[in-house]
Every structure is written in structure tokens, then in C-alpha cells.
Write a structure and sequence with these properties.
The structure is a homodimer of 315-residue chains. Chain A contains 11 helices and 13 strands. Chain A has helices spanning 4-16, 19-26, 30-44, 60-87, 100-117, 130-139, 183-188, 203-213, 228-236, 246-256, 285-301; strands at 49-51, 56-58, 93-98, 122-126, 144-149, 157-171, 181-182, 191-194, 221-225, 242-245, 261-266, 270-278, 303-304. Chain A binds a DNA duplex (30 and 30 nucleotides) through residues 5, 18-20, 28-32, 34-36, 38-39, 51-56, 156.
Chain lengths: 315, 315
DNA sequence: GTCGAGCCATAGGCCCAACCTATGGTTTCA
DNA sequence: TGAAACCATAGGTTGGGCCTATGGCTCGAC
């Protein structure tokens, strides 16, 4: 079998025209290099050196082989360097899951944070739709993600809450904003809910369902839209009201629905932001970096559940 | 230490997303591949696969490494193929020593023979001056050569005579061609000798010296030139006479000195063509090929010393 | 919920490859 | 002719690579 070690010995021998010199240069004993060369000649089925009195002389086959051998070793070096560059965040891609609301809170800023520290890396935030995120997390394609979850429970997943964000009722009708909105009033309202997450996992939706469960009702959503911006715009047009995280309301209302306002729910409800990854996984440095930066971003806006909490790698 | 085997296992595992499948494909047991991957991860200091429930999933580092690993293996394959191509005479260079007179006898035809059989090879006939040939033979840079030698003796060299060629006296003066030329007349003549070979080794020169030794004289050469063609031209101009191999005379006189002719020496003298290589050398297929073809060419013109003799490899 | 199938990790054992030191043969040079 | 340089061989040790057997985990089916 042809090996890199054989090629290394070959090149050294070729360069110095001597097995002894090559062995010295490589830090081996002379018979070791001799053996490697012989093995290489055997596997290739050709003679590479003529043993002549003092030293050895490369044959024309050796002349032919040399540039190829150099190419091989150069390729190996390139591979090694590429990996080291990725390892030290000089280059490479960092994939991280983050969807819907969480992205709204930390998306652009998070990428800016990473690029500021490691200009060479490419950041891939997965989570246009959250089916993807849940699936890729389960399949292992995605190492970790920052999600808004309602219940801390997922099969084989470790969920680490980092912040919570109050849900508020938004409306273009000032009359509906005078008092905190109860479950009763909520059940009567015309609501638009954005399906920012996979419906089964949708944090806001689950939170509302839980709230309404006590009154024995299900949330009536007359309108369903994909993204939260559209929902807010519809509220601005007075076509419906909605329930969204407070930070999103403060960020989106002035821009998309200036005539609308928000009011608390009663009892107050929260969405929980949490880091999710497979239980038992050892997190890579890249994932740890993303978790730390994303947590910081989110905690700057939402209410920290643990001071600067960082997910600890589980063994 | 990074090895080709590790990269092979890595690529198979990456492709199939499974250590077991990779092992099957490579013909190994599953723990063996597992061990290779672990060793590779250790030498690179990175995690390449996440072990997730069913199968393994490549990390982004693995994504980065993959094209480099493929490049390495492709380079190895290219090297192997290049060597095999040379081995089977599809390509590569064949170096062979052949100087002066020998080249005149077999040069172009020999190259034609090789190219007819192996169109891809490049033939390098060394021997513009024979210092080079003797030196490169001694140093091992040159595996074998076809030379015109006078005495069958050389330090550590194996000399195999294949043909002999009579030396003739050429002159533009018909009077000098009426009778065979004796050593006595030779000593009185104005001679031009071409230094087609290194003077110490020059076959013709040595032959003449040996011939004149009996009369106690040294050859008087008034004119010395580098190549035999110039010598013949000078003879054609009537400026001097010369002694050259008969085949060369027949080939060159009509073209370069049409008014000149040749006559035998008395006693008759011969140059000997012989294959020379280092004693104890195992001759490569390429060298054996060249020896066979060159011998055939020379024996077609000169007088064979052994029927279609081919130098036998000495152990 | 439970059971079987699939997959990876670990353990233990075997064997060859790689390395070493010591030594002999050959060539080269003084 | 002897010393130095260099390669080949011999013999011994070690570690890497491969195997089988087995255990633990996950996933999917009944």
C-alpha cells in the first residue's frame, strides 16, 4: 500500500541523493528510510534509485514521480491548513438554528457580532421555517439552536432557557387597549396569528392555548399568516388584533402599524427563549460561541432568566 | 500522523453517513473504520462527525475537509498512473548514452525505432561529447551506453562488444589510395582527426596509437576538429587525410568529399562497438530495450561480433 | 410499552509494519 | 592500502491496524 510516509522519504532521498542524509533530515535511522524506499519501489513495481557506489541516483521514473509526490504532500498540507483555519475561526461556516421571533430579536446583530470577531467565517442561520430547525436538530445536521419555546419538553433534547419575553395584545382600536386583556376578551377577539414557528411547537400559540384552556376555549384565529410583519400590518389596518412578544411590538408597531398600540394580558404570559440541542452532545467551540453571543443579544432585549446564562455542555 | 488510509475512511464515511456502510464498502470491519476516523479527528484536533442515534453526521469541518481529502487521493492516483505510464513505456523519458561514431551509425534510426514502438516516450541520447557519457556512466546518472571502444577495460564497467568496424584511410589524392596504408606511411601523413570522443577514451585514436606503437611513433595530427563531418570536409578540400570507420566513410564521403576515396590500413584495424554499463547493475526494461534496438541497428551496418548479441543482466 | 433491528463504542487478542542497533560489503579518496 | 562514507542485511522491540465479541443506544414496528 502506498503511503504518505513513503513519499516523504522518497522526496528527501531524491533531494539529497543519499539515504543517510535523508534519514538524518527526517530524524530516522538510515535502514528505516531504506526500507520505505524499497517498499515504495515494490508497490509501484519500478526502480526509483540506482544504488551506485557513493549515494543513490534517481532513475527517470523517479524524475517523473517527483512532481507528483510533491503535489500529494502539498495537497495534504493544504487540507491540514484548511482544517486548522476552520478550527481557529479564520474561515469556514458556522451553522446555527434560530427562527421566527428569535431571529427578529438577535438575527442581524448576532451575525454582526460574529463577523466583528471572526471576519473570515460564514454564518448560516437556519430557520426560515421551523420544521427545518426541529428536523435538522433531530437529525443532527444542526448542532444547536435558539428557539422560542412554550414548554420545556422535547424528546431527547436539552432545553436551556435563557430569557423570557412578555406577550402583549396589540390593536389599532384604542378602546381595546385601555385595560389588560383577559382570556375571556381574548376568546372573543378577531385575531391574526403569525405562524412563525411550526404550529405544534409554536411558542406563542401554545402559550395562548394554555391561557385559554382555563376558560375552556380555543383561540379563534380568523386569519393566519406566515410572518409576524404581515400580522402587524393587518393589525395596523384594523382588520384584526394580535398577540405578539412585547419586544416585537415595540420594534414593529412604529414602523408597520403606527396607529396601533399594545396592552398587557391578564394574567401575564411569556414566551421563553431557550437554547436547544441534542441531549448528551458535546458542543463544538463554534456552537458555544453562537450560544454565548445569541444569549447576550437576547438578554439585552428580553428579561434574562439566568444572568448571562451559557448552556453548559452535558457529558 | 495523518495518513492516506484515514482520508479514505473519512471520505467513505462522509459519503455513506455511516461507519458500518463505509466499512462494508472498504472491506473492513466496522471498528477499524471507527478507529481510523477517531485517529484522524485526534491528529487534526477537530470533530468531523457527530454521533447521532442512527448513523453519523458530518460537521461543517468535515464539509470543509472533504474536497481537500478528495484532492489528496486524486493526486495519489495521478502519481500512481504517471508511474505506471512510464513503466509501460506509454510516456516518460529514456536516457541512453551513445556518442560520436556510434550516434552516426544508429542515432536517428534508433530514435525512430523507439518512437515507432512507443510513440509516447521521449528519448534522450546523451553524448555530444563523451566526457559527459563516461562521467554520467560512472556517476550512475546514465544506466548504459553504446560506445566505440578500443580496449575492453574500464574500472567497474561491464563492456559487451556487439560489432566491429574497420578503420580506413581517406584522402582526396588518388595516389595515396592505390595501396593499403601502413603504419609507416601513416606516420608521415598530414592527418586530421576528429575528437569525437574524449581523447583518452577515443577509440580510433587509441587504435592508431596502438598501431603506431610498433613503429615507435605517435600519430602526428596537424589538425584537430570536434566533429567527424568537419574532418571529412577538410579531407575533401585536400588539406589533410584522415582515418575513420569504414561505414562513416561510405556515408559521409559522397556527401561531404565527393572527390575523396578510401583505402584499407595494413595491418587492418578495427573500432569496436560495445554496450557499457556499471558492473553488477540490474538493467531496467528501458535500458534493455535501447540496448537491443541499438545493437540491431549497428549490426545491420557493421560486422556483428556476436549474432544479435544482447547484454545479459549481471546479478 | 416493549421488542427487535441497526449502529457505534469498547475490550481483548493477533499480527505485521516500522523503527531501532549492530554489522558487513562496497566504493571512494587520501 | 587504509580510513571514511554509504547502503544492505540481520535481529529484536514496539505500536498500529485489524479482527471478533459484546454492550449500549436509538429508532421503528407491533
Amino acid at each position: 500500500m502506498l503511503s504518505l510516509h513513503q513519499l516523504t522519504c522518497f522526496l528527501a532521498t531524491y533531494e539529497y541523493g543519499s539515504l543517510t542524509r535523508a534519514a538524518e533530515e527526517l530524524g530516522y535511522a538510515q535502514p528505516s528510510v531504506s526500507e520505505q524506499i524499497r517498499a515504495l519501489e515494490k508497490t509501484l513495481g519500478v526502480q526509483l534509485f540506482r544504488r551506485v557506489g557513493r549515494g543513490v541516483v534517481p532513475t527517470t521514473v523517479a524524475d517523473t514521480l517527483r512532481p507528483y509526490a510533491e503535489q500529494v504532500l502539498a495537497s495534504v498540507d493544504a487540507a491540514r491548513q484548511a482544517v486548522q483555519a476552520v478550527k481557529s475561526f479564520e474561515t469556514g461556516t458556522i451553522r446555527f438554528g434560530m427562527f421566527g421571533i428569535a431571529r427578529l430579536y438577535a438575527g442581524a446583530g448576532l451575525i454582526a457580532d460574529v463577523l466583528a470577531r471572526y471576519p473570515g467565517v460564514r454564518v448560516e442561520l437556519v430557520g426560515q421555517n421551523s420544521t427545518e430547525v426541529a428536523d435538522e436538530l433531530r437529525r443532527g445536521r444542526l448542532e444547536a439552536a435558539m428557539l422560542a419555546v412554550s414548554t420545556v419538553s422535547a424528546e431527547g433534547m436539552t432545553v436551556t432557557p435563557v430569557a423570557r419575553e412578555e406577550l402583549v395584545y396589540i390593536s389599532a382600536d384604542p378602546a381595546r387597549l385601555e385595560l389588560p386583556v383577559t382570556a375571556h376578551r381574548l376568546a372573543l377577539a378577531t385575531l391574526v396569528l403569525s405562524e412563525t414557528t411550526y404550529s405544534e411547537v409554536d411558542a406563542t400559540r401554545n402559550t395562548l392555548r394554555q391561557m385559554l384552556h382555563e376558560t375552556g376555549r380555543n383561540p379563534q384565529t380568523r386569519i393566519e399568516v406566515e410572518d409576524i410583519e404581515t400580522a402587524v400590518e393587518l393589525v395596523g389596518l384594523g382588520l384584526a388584533d394580535s398577540v405578539i412578544p412585547k419586544g416585537a411590538a415595540e420594534q414593529l408597531l412604529p414602523r408597520l402599524a403606527p396607529n396601533a398600540g399594545w396592552v398587557q394580558l391578564r394574567p401575564r404570559q411569556w414566551d421563553t427563549f431557550a437554547v436547544v440541542h441534542r441531549s448528551g452532545a458535546v458542543l463544538s467551540p463554534a456552537a458555544q460561541l453562537m450560544i454565548e453571543l445569541a444569549t447576550r443579544r437576547i438578554q439585552d432585549i428580553a428579561e434574562p432568566l439566568r444572568p448571562r446564562a451559557v448552556a453548559r455542555p452535558t457529558t
